[in-house]
């Protein structure tokens, strides 16, 4: 599972770079435009992706084995709700996204089968106590990212921007050719 999750951490960074490159082709008004999406706009959906990651990785950082490798989270925003808008400006959001993705990659280098089986205790957004293995929670995080990035690609198409290929296989093939 370690190799799979580390690959997903790299895919996350790869896809976010590709999406933000495409988003930068739009005006600020187009990025913030209400497109009828669950998180309203491209900006809202990208903010939600960062919020979700911050909430999860802050939970992971509260676990003793992870706190040192996630210490950099202390400088990141602390969202209170899944619908928080942390950044109104796409450039600021992109900078925070890049910081978060680098942190995820660095954290992924600490993973092994043992740490991925370790339970993480946390409270969900309803404040209910939960306890799940880190590996299972990371699977959820990466699935969540992929889901919402899919929404962003649809919103980009609606705005007249082709996000191009988003398949994990393309990243794997690119890595093989390097």
What is the β-strand count?
2
Q: Which descriptor suits the 3D outline? A: globular
> What share of residues is helical?
55-70%
SSE class: mainly alpha
Instruction: Kindly estimate the percentage of residues that lie in beta strands according to DSSP.
Output: 5-15%
The termini sit apart by 24 Å
Low-confidence stretches: none
Largest sheet strand order: 1-2
List keywords for this structure.
mainly alpha; 8 helices; Four Helix Bundle (Hemerythrin (Met), subunit A); 178 residues; two-stranded antiparallel ribbon; globular
Concise synopsis of the structure shown:
The chain is mostly helical and 178 residues long. Helix content is 61%, strand content 6%.
Q: Overview of this structure, please?
A:
It is built from eight helices and two strands, in the order ααααααββαα. The chain is mainly alpha-helical and 178 residues long. The chain has a single domain, classed as Up-down Bundle (Four Helix Bundle (Hemerythrin (Met), subunit A)). Strands 1-2 form a two-stranded antiparallel sheet. Strand 1 and strand 2 (129-133) form a beta hairpin. Helix 1 (2-23) packs parallel to helix 7 (134-158), helix 3 (42-61) packs parallel to helix 5 and helix 3 (42-61) runs antiparallel to helix 7 (134-158). The longest helix has 25 residues, at 134-158.
């Amino acid at each position: 599972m370690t190799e799979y999750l580390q690959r997903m951490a790299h895919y996350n960074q790869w896809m976010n770079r590709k999406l933000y490159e495409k988003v930068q082709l739009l005006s600020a008004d187009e990025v913030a435009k209400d497109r009828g999406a669950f998180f309203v706009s491209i900006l809202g959906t990208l903010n939600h992706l960062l919020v979700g990651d911050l909430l999860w990785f802050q939970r992971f950082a509260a676990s003793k084995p992870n706190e040192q490798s996630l210490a950099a989270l202390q400088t990141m925003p602390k969202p209170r709700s899944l619908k928080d808008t942390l950044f109104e400006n796409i450039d600021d959001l992109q900078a925070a996204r890049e910081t978060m993705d680098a942190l995820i990659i660095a954290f992924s280098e600490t993973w092994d089968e043992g740490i991925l089986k370790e339970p993480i205790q946390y409270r969900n957004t309803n404040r209910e106590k939960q306890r799940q293995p880190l590996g299972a929670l990371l699977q959820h995080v990466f699935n969540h990212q992929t889901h919402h990035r899919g929404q962003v690609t649809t919103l980009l198409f609606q705005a007249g921007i082709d996000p191009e290929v988003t398949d994990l296989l393309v990243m794997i093939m690119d890595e093989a050719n390097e």
